Amino acid sequence: MTVNAAITIRPATDDDVPLIAHNVLDAVGIEHPETEALDHLAELCRCTDVLYSWANTDIALWDGRPVGSLTSYDGGRYAEMRVKTFAELEKFLGMDFSRMSVETGPGEFYLDSLAVLPGFRGKGIGTLLMQHGIAKARALRFPRAALLVDIDNPDTMRLYESLGFKKVGEMYLFSTLYARMIVELPPERR
């Protein structure tokens, strides 16, 4: 658990699913989703074997109120979790994800979806969530952490660069061009 002033970070629970679903959509640029899309994604987030599961998510609390989330997981599990995730997304979005780029793979801890509620942005919550995700990757002994960032979001890209991430390529996902970034996590000396 990470604490900084009024901000606490804890593992998500099933009760956090509505926030997680909202934040996953926000992370891909859908700030005001339709209720039906939000309900379907929440149903998906209740599963433990999908990319956007509550079981893969940490929650940021501001004075005890959930205000942000970071979904992250072992990139080696991505291919397996992607199958069920995208099959369910296709059902309610009506989109074909079969040719979508592969975001991550073995040897990476993938920081998938970061979002903070609008009224709480600019308070360091996203930075703390990312630092928490990097620390988690280190604790699990991953050699690197990886993420994607919309290339039209230079402020967020600068945040990631300030945390040590370097751009290593670009890819399209959900019809948007993203920069792929990694941070190397060399083993700590003891």
Describe this protein's structure.
The chain is α+β, with helices and mostly antiparallel strands and 190 residues long. It has one domain: Gcn5-related N-acetyltransferase (GNAT) (Aminopeptidase). 33% of the residues lie in helices and 30% in strands. The protein contains 5 helices and 8 strands. An 8-stranded mixed β-sheet has the order 1-2-3-4-5-6-8-7, sandwiched between helices. The longest helix is centred in the middle third of the chain and has 16 residues. The model has no long low-confidence stretch (mean pLDDT 89).
C-alpha geometry: globular
CATH-derived architecture: 3-Layer(aba) Sandwich
**Strand percentage:** 25-35%
Structural class: alpha+beta
Task: Please write out the topology.
Elements: E1 2-4, E2 7-11, H1 17-27, H2 35-45, E3 57-62, E4 65-74, H3 78-93, E5 108-116, H4 125-139, E6 144-150, H5 154-162, E7 166-173, E8 176-184
Parallel strand pairs: 5-6
Antiparallel strand pairs: 1-2, 2-3, 3-4, 4-5, 6-8, 7-8
Helix pairs in contact: 1-2, 2-3
Q: Gist?
A:
This protein is 33% helix and 30% strand.
Observed structural traits:
30% strand; globular; Aminopeptidase; 190 residues
